[in-house]
């Protein structure tokens, strides 16, 4: 498992397995968000399999699939809402963590300067400076 914190309350990861969930819970995460569509993965790691493991550990599980190249406003709002309503830190995953990072950036853009979002992504290993011109108009800070 390769968990990368973007903030103290939100981290991303490449694909997780049901066997990873116990360690995720032990690390203090309270919500898991699946951003990977089921058609990209084998049955053993599809959302329902991870959901079962998460619920067995008392974690909240949200499915918000993001097809490659399709981060839309509904997905951004769903991600933002799941993060805001979580009763503790949230871990989101996709194939590499990139989509989970991008959807978070757009959800946080109104309240966090674009440069800070780009820097957080970069520190976590996601060089997404090309998104800065798209994030800046969304900022209210």
Automatic annotation (TrEMBL):
Domain Beta-lactamase hydrolase-like protein phosphatase-like: 2-109
Highest taxon of the lineage: Bacteria
Annotated SUPFAM superfamilies: (Phosphotyrosine protein) phosphatases II (SSF52799)
Positions in coiled-coil regions: none
Signal sequence bounds: none
InterPro entries, A to Z: BLH_phosphatase-like, Prot-tyrosine_phosphatase-like
GO molecular function, one term: hydrolase activity
Name of the protein: Uncharacterized protein (TIGR01244 family)
The species this protein was found in: Aliiruegeria haliotis
């Amino acid at each position: 498992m390769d968990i990368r914190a973007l903030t103290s309350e939100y981290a991303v990861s490449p694909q997780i397995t049901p066997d990873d969930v116990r360690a995720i819970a032990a690390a203090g995460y309270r919500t898991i968000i699946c951003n990977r569509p089921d058609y990209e993965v084998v049955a053993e790691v599809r959302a329902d399999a991870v959901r079962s493991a998460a619920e067995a550990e008392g974690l909240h599980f949200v499915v918000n699939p993001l097809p490659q190249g399709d981060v839309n406003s509904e997905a951004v709002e769903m991600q933002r809402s799941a993060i805001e309503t979580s009763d503790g830190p949230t871990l989101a995953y996709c194939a590499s963590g990139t989509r989970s990072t991008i959807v978070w950036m757009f959800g946080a853009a109104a309240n966090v300067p674009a440069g800070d979002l780009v820097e957080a992504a970069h520190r976590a290993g996601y060089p997404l400076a090309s998104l800065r011109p798209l994030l800046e108009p969304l900022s209210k800070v």
